[in-house]
């Protein structure tokens, strides 16, 4: 059975797509690229912005044109938002987030196969558990949280993902152990609101320490500033670089009035202090963040304040988004900044982001950096540093995926470090055969 999966949006969606294919072993799936022709085509959609919605619509139409006979299943946040209307675009079945646990049953029954019970955590943690496709990966996502209770004024995600649910740490650690046995080296903890994780007696910091004790390298995906406490910073500092010294702390705006209006639970002073503590505590700390241009009622002076605050923070990477009103959110009812002004402010944020990235990456020239090798391309080793720079290293020698190597940096290409391998710091665990 030729199976194509197109995943849009967040890392949580990626986890869930991986898990789905792992649950379809009865189909004997051969995963193909979307353009290669498929019998089953799954599109896991995003709806965080109107751009994400447009991308989802385009992908559904494209899938139907390229695969006229395929069984096309659309799921994810846009499916939650639009429901059966997506059949008009080419979907055969639409499965919203609230019914994602039914995906294996829907698909297997369509192909005339019995929907045997699937070993998977409870319904609210569908997408965790069996991970059939991850046996050949060096890095793996581990979903430990879903949903959001925050209710930011501009955000539709609580409506699409529901209330917060937290996976028991015993379940999470059991899956982590299984991933490590397959040869996975780095586990990326993920969730819709990861920092709120309450499935461990000591919260996210406790879970990270337990993963370290298993021997895993640990990276955190995006986390909210107000959820990032000193205990977590100290755990990262104590175990870096095994716990990766990189945090993606969502800023959204550098103006206190707008932070309060948008329902954010921190102010500039809190964010500034948090970042300073991270720099002080964590060796080699790297900050990435995201900002939204043109939030409702944003003035030009407030936009300039955000630019100035980013210059003060010196992040290595800034993701800038143009605000788009989301249905049934409080922000959508507020006075809106003209679209062209929003777009111009986005361009200015992106230009600053490039300047800041260049300033932060330039000092890496000539230094020796640690790299987790994820892929081999000819004589090159490809991977990431602990502080999340992409790497292309020449002269890989005997280095294999899963090894940690030293690379001397002798070049830069945008956000990527270029160089040559100087030696192996740590050999990766032997990759086990896939579990049948």
Q: If you had to describe this structure to a student in words, what would you say it looks like?
A:
With 436 residues, this protein is α/β, with parallel strands linked by helices. The chain folds into three domains: 2-110, Rossmann fold; 123-362, pyruvate-formate lyase- activating enzyme (Alpha-Beta Horseshoe), CATH 3.80.30.20; 365-426, Nucleic acid-binding proteins (OB fold (Dihydrolipoamide Acetyltransferase, E2P), Beta Barrel). Helices cover 32% and strands 23% of the residues. Strands 2-1-3-4-5 form a five-stranded parallel beta sheet, sandwiched between helices. The chain has a five-stranded mixed beta barrel with strand order 13-14-15-17-16. It has a four-stranded mixed beta sheet with strand order 7-6-8-9. The model is unreliable at 118-123, 130-135 and 430-436 (pLDDT under 50).
Poorly predicted parts: 118-123, 130-135, 430-436
Which architecture name of the largest domain does CATH use?
Alpha-Beta Horseshoe
| Order of strands, widest sheet | 2-1-3-4-5
Counted up, domains total 3
Largest sheet: 5 strands, parallel
Q: How many strands appear in the DSSP assignment? A: 17
Approximately what portion of the residues adopt beta-strand conformation?
Answer: 15-25%
From the helix content, strand content and strand pairing, which structural class follows?
alpha/beta
CATH class of the largest domain: Alpha Beta
- Measured distance between first and last alpha carbons: 17 Å
Remind me, CATH topology of the largest domain? pyruvate-formate lyase- activating enzyme
The CATH H-level superfamily of the largest domain is tm_1862 like domain
Q: Give the mean pLDDT.
A: 91
Q: Give the proportion of residues in helices.
A: 25-40%
General shape:
globular
Radius of gyration: 22 Å
What's the number of helices?
Answer: 12
| Multimerization status | single chain
Write the element-wise H/E pattern from the N-terminal end onward: EHEEHEHEHEHEHEHEHEHHEHEHEEEEE
Cofactor: [4Fe-4S] cluster
GO molecular function, one term: metal ion binding
Domain Radical SAM core: 134-360
Domain TRAM: 362-423
